[in-house]
Amino acid sequence: MDISQHVRAIISFVEAADSQSFAAASRKLKITSAAVSKNIASLEKVLGVRLMNRTTRTLSLTKEGELFLAHVRIALGALENAVDMVMTEKNENRGHVRISTSAAFGSDFIVPELVGLIKEFTNLTVEVDFDDNIIDLVDNGYDIVIRGGKITDSAFISRSICKMPTVLVASPEYLSRHGIPDSAAELSNHTLIPRKFIDGRISPWGFKGSDGTLSFITPKNAKITLTNPKSLTDVAVLGLGIAQVGVHNCLKEIENGALKVLLFDEHDPGDFEMVIQYPHRALIAQRVQTTVQYLLDKLRLKKELSTPLKELKQYSV
Fold first, then answer.
1. Residue 254: which domain range?
2. Is residue 145 part of a domain?
3. Could you tell me if 122 and 186 lie in one domain?
4. Which helix H or strand E contains 165, and what residues bound it?
5. In the listed set 87, 116, 148, which residue is the last one of a domain according to the structure?
6. Sign of CA dihedral 94, 99, 105, 107
7. Long-range contact set of residues 171-176: C-beta below 8 Å, sequence gap at least 24
8. Do 170 and 262 belong to one domain?
9. Helices (DSSP H) in the chain: which residue ranges?
10. Core vs surface per residue 134-152: b (16+ CB within 10 A) or e
11. What is the pLDDT of residues 13-48, one digit of tens each?
12. What gap in Å lies between CA 62 and CA 17, rounded to an integer?
């Protein structure tokens, strides 16, 4: 099988794997289903392994097929970027950039900066999907994913935007009615406002012991539970209870006195982080490089994302 046959066979394999159908792959490639099947069979013969299990109704990848597909995607991505680089002048930024980000952070911080990006780089177009679920960057066709939390090791390149410490906050009005807790143990006597993750878990609140150990409580029997982190700030300002909120979501309210910081020395701010991730490829398109660097440069200047946690102690009670 020569190189041109290799390419045809690999593309047939990828399209069939994505659509789980020879017929759907044939329609997209504008060849017959028999040709798709023949291409994949030839590829399997060259490789000496079965890549797909076929029945009259279903099509599924073998373990070898899953491994081969993952490597092929990297190679095809590198080829696409090579075409981008050749077709675009060295210092010119043009093309389409697809971004996935969380709803709250994306609306508050990403969208305002994208306005400046497309004004400066007029040949760029940008598409943003707001999704709080964990998505597959490559399979879903994104160039950039912007996510926060405890970032684990990844096959992708991760560029840190900022740390995302949390604080406990409540409104002066709430505290005047219910008193100020002076220890984590006293929180059981207060109305707590929990945050629920998309998967149903309640975000725990951590506290530092005098011996350096960490303990956690999970707010229970709440009058209101929220998934949107910015809404925690809004509800706390309205005096409904005590909330654990990211500093970036409540700095303005803390500085203007609408919220007070509680148990500053005892509460553990966590090790959360906001990052930009993109595929680790041999060639990274200029449009992606430009977008990543522009966002990093702008976001790192944001006061909400760069204020040291220690500066908030002055607002604690």
1. 166-271
2. yes
3. no
4. none
5. 87
6. positive
7. 171/236, 171/237, 171/238, 171/239, 171/258, 171/259, 171/260, 172/257, 172/260, 173/239, 174/236, 174/239, 174/240, 174/241, 174/242, 175/260, 175/317
8. yes
9. 3-19, 22-29, 33-47, 63-87, 103-105, 111-120, 172-178, 229-237, 247-255, 286-299, 303-306
10. eeebbeeebbbbbbbeeee
11. 999 998 888 889 899 899 999 999 999 999 999 899
12. 11
- pLDDT, tens digit, 9 for 90 and up, residues 240-278: 999 999 999 999 999 999 999 999 999 999 988 999 988
DSSP SS3 for 136 = coil
Q: What's the CATH number where 117 sits? A: 3.40.190.10
| Domain-located, residue 62 | yes
Indicate if the pLDDT at residue 119 is higher than 90: yes
Backbone angles phi, psi at 98, to 5 degrees: -100, 130
Nearest by Cα to 5 from 58, 49, 64, 45: 45
Residue 315, in any domain of the structure: no
How many whole angstroms separate alpha carbon 207 and alpha carbon 262?
A: 12
Distance between first and last Cα of the chain: 74
